Amino acid sequence: MFAYSASMAPMEERSSSCPLDCPDLCGLTVTIDQGRVVEINGDRRGPITDGFVCGKVRKFADHMYGDDRIKTPLIRDGAKGSGQFRTATWDEALAIVATRLQLIRSTSGAEAILPYHYGGSNGWLTEGALATRFFRRLGASNLDRTFCAAATTAACRGLYGVMQGVALEDYEHARLIVLWGINPTATGIHLVPVIERAIAAGAKLVVVDPRKTPLARRADLHLPIRPGTDVPVALAVIHALFTRGHANRAFLAEHAAEVEELERRSARWSLEDAAREAGLELAELDRFVELYAQASPAVIRVGNGLERNRNGGSAVAAVLAIPAVAGKFGVRGGGYTMAGDARWGVSDQAGIAEPPSAARTINMSQISTALQTLTEPRLECLFVYNCNPAVTAPDQRALIEELRRDDLFVVVHDQVMTDTAHLADVVLPATTFLEHRDLRRGDGATRMFDSHAVVAPVGEARSNNQLFGALLERFDLVRPGDAMTDEEIVASVFAASPDGPALRAQLATATIASPPEGARQIPFVEVFPGTPDQKIHLVPEHLDREAPAGLYTYQPDPRTDEFPLTLISPSLATQISSMFGQLRTAPAALELSAHDAAARGIRTGDAIKVWNSYGEVHCLAKIATEVRDGVCVLPKGLWRKHTANGFTSNALIPPGLADLGGQAAFNDARVQVAKR
Ligand code: SF4
Questions:
Q1: 3-class secondary structure, 211
Q2: Has residue 484 been placed in a domain?
Q3: Which of 53, 388, 598, 624 could form a Cys-Cys staple with 591, CB 3.0–4.6 A?
Q4: What spacing in Å lies between the alpha carbon of 512 and ligand 1's midpoint?
Q5: What is the Cα–Cα distance from 10 to 513, expressed in whole angstroms?
């Protein structure tokens, strides 16, 4: 599987691509000296990388070769969570894992085993090829992956089916760019110069975000919306478009269904009521309606910030309905972008060759509850890979207690010693994306790379496919004809689809591929909704049934006198969720407004506690002008070492979900803050 040659010359450049959870999909030039990565830069194969990469990946060598890198299998050699491990061979570690899994399967049933995984730094193949096959054939419980984009995907697919949105490179053509719940400066930096070029050419920028992000500072209009109030704001905009004659009735008649029902539901929200609920100036909201109505092309970039609350699915659906009502499609740079909806015509499922199992499904966002309450069977094994739930799952305090349970067998396959790995029974060293082959598919820059290993794995690290291939063999679950090597899996993915051979040929010759229908399609000219009737469904029946109170129903802010502040946990510019957290040395600081700090006698640098009924976090305070009154910020992805009491914002997240997709409601925490 591994393609590195020890005979490669000292100091050479090799091509790779970045699979991290980021929309930009950078092609990379990796400089290697004596078999070690010494420098990583962006290349120009993709449409927007333009020769530079973010600081996260520029410093990736620190992650690969740092002290926290796991180099050999480790077996727990002390109390759970004590951090005491002994080294082991792969053979011994796999024997321990296989023996325990067999025992659980024979005594309690395979559903007592739960694979717990997310994207990690993995691409299309290593994220879930042989792992998925292994756990399905074993009969283990299935995992519903709902930390991110679950509500967004449900809403977008419900309204538009699978339909590629506006390509990021086409933002240069827009006359109005709306960033709604997204901060590209931290989570997708290559959009920033594209927006700058659009502004230089006369485009206007609107940012809808509770924080004054770097782009919000430069925007023509910043709507500092109160978290969780996107539904009234978007519906009020829709209502105003209808009542002011800005709706494109001809476009709606030709391309949309349930128009009258959306018009009826949006009438619930006037601009006045929405502005009051969202904490906005009425004049600002009014200006947004007119700016949007008059501009063409106008594009809305929908981020993940608005889905992370009780109203998240309806919020995304309402925002995505705006360009339909105003008829903003049909021109290059007009419409919306929601990551990840290119029609590739090939499926990773072809490489797995195993249908979904009938075993129960557990929502990853409710893992602490599942561990505490599930019976028949109770969960006895958590097999964690590409994921760090001790700091990324809600209800952190209860989850860590469960992970400490002696009767819960925890296996972690990861690159570095994460907070979850510290609580494991067996830790297995994983390869990074520069040490294994993978297909990498962009979810913003709509392209695909097939990238091979550029260096040998550090220590004894193995890829997901190597690990789960070995377990398939130990459990005698390999069947004749199964694709087992990376090359065989790639071949079977492309062979299973009519579009596959052409895609594979593109990858072989150009080293980068575009979707069969193209990467820069103009919606409603060259590409149409992926719904059965190719129409936009503005109030899809299945989403209306799924949302507890019906689609577009606003569930009010849950803040109370006891817990009056809204805690949000946006991404750090230096991490991808919790990835790279081991490299951070700065202690965590809660950002709050000068007004909220003064009301509590708090100054920057004070030791404070943030608490609610779910938990308490001890950290520092930072007065921030970026944050509006009533909102405080503790970023996601912090590790336990970053706070004084070992808990992060996830200790304060309630167990409730958004209204669609089983999505975690990370921004629904309401808290109080005081000096310690
Ligand atoms: S994380 Fe994003 S910006 Fe950074 S190198 Fe990867 S794709 Fe590019």
A1: strand
A2: yes
A3: 624
A4: 16
A5: 30
Beta strand pairing call for 381-385 and 298-302: unpaired
- For the stretch 264-292, what's the b/e string if a residue is b when 16 or more beta carbons lie within 10 angstroms of its beta carbon? ebbebbbbeebbebbbbeeebbbebbebb
Residue type (1 letter), 167: A
Which residue(s) pair with 439 in the sheet? 450
Q: Is 162 exposed, middle or buried (0-12, 13-18, 19+ CB in 10 A)?
A: middle
Distance 434 CA to ligand 1 centre (A): 14
The CA 148 to ligand 1 mean position distance, Å, reads 18
Q: Is the CB of 111 under 6 A from ligand 1?
A: no
Cα–ligand 1 centroid distance for 190 (angstroms): 8
Closest approach atom of ligand 1 to CA 56: 4
Specify the residue with its C-alpha closest to ligand 1, atom 4.
54
Question: What are the structure tokens assigned to 163, written together?
Answer: 């339909």
* Co-location of 336 and 359 in the same domain: no
Is the CB of residue 57 below 6 angstroms from any atom belonging to ligand 1? yes
Q: Is ligand 1 within 6 A of the CB of residue 26? A: yes
Q: Which atom of ligand 1 is nearest to the CA of 189?
A: 3
Taking phi first (over 0 means left), then psi (-120 to 50 degrees means alpha), and beta for anything else, what does residue 226 get? beta
Strand pairing of 74-76 and 426-429? antiparallel
Pairing of strands 565-568, 631-633: parallel
Same domain, 394 and 487: yes
Task: Name the 3-class secondary structure at 383.
Answer: strand
Q: What is the mean pLDDT of residues 225-248?
A: 98
Q: Answer yes or no: do 132 and 219 share one domain.
A: no
- The string of pLDDT tens digits covering residues 462-519 is 999 999 999 999 999 999 999 999 999 999 989 988 999 999 999 999 889 999 888 8
Count, residues in the chain: 676
Q: Verify whether ligand 1 is closer than 6 Å to residue 40 (CB atom).
A: no
Alpha helices in 579-670 (DSSP H): 594-599
CB of 18 shorter than 6 A to ligand 1? yes
Question: Domain of 158?
Answer: 151-341+521-546
Rounded to 10°, the helix 312-326/150-160 angle is 30
Number of domains comprising the chain: 4
For residue 9, what pLDDT is reported? 55
Q: Is 25 exposed, middle or buried (0-12, 13-18, 19+ CB in 10 A)?
A: buried
Q: What percentage of the chain has pLDDT greater than the value 70?
A: 98
- In whole angstroms, give the CA distance from residue 530 to residue 163: 6
Q: Looking at the structure, tell me whether residues 133 and 171 fall in a common domain.
A: no
**How confident is the model over 355-365, as pLDDT tens digits?**
999 999 999 99
Find the CATH number of the domain harbouring 198.
3.40.228.10
Atom of ligand 1 nearest to the CA of 28: 5
Residue nearest to atom 5 of ligand 1 (CA): 53
CA distances from 52 to 58, 189, 281, 324 (A): 9, 10, 39, 35
